[in-house]
């Protein structure tokens, strides 16, 4: 029985704590992503203000979305997969079709 394919060295059939490990890893990655996003956003806005560039609130929101979702969380996910010895291709992600994207 395969319990979890992302942590094969931690999980076996006799290990009753695999659910706790999964929960702790997920919460840690989520909180780390949020913290990394805040740090990167603060650093980027400080760099811009050093050059005298002030951004409007809508621009800051879009920038926070891009930095948070793609750079911080995406980078953290790739780093975690590499730490586990897996590639991004092992997750089974694919580019959505135009129909799936529209839905």
Automatic annotation (TrEMBL):
TM region positions: 20-40, 60-81
UniProt keyword terms in alphabetical order: Membrane, Transmembrane, Transmembrane helix
Protein name from the UniProt record: Uncharacterized protein
Species classification: Archaea, Methanobacteriati, Methanobacteriota, Stenosarchaea group, Halobacteria
């Amino acid at each position: 029985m395969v319990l979890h394919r992302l942590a094969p060295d931690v999980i076996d059939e006799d290990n009753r704590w695999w659910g706790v490990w999964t929960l702790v890893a997920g919460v840690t990655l989520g909180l780390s992503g949020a913290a990394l996003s805040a740090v990167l956003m603060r650093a980027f806005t400080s760099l811009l203000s050093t050059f005298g560039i002030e951004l409007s609130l809508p621009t800051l929101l879009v920038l926070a979305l891009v930095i948070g979702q793609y750079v911080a969380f995406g980078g953290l996910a790739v780093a975690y997969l590499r730490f586990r010895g897996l590639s991004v291709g092992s997750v089974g992600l694919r580019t959505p079709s135009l129909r799936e994207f529209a839905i």
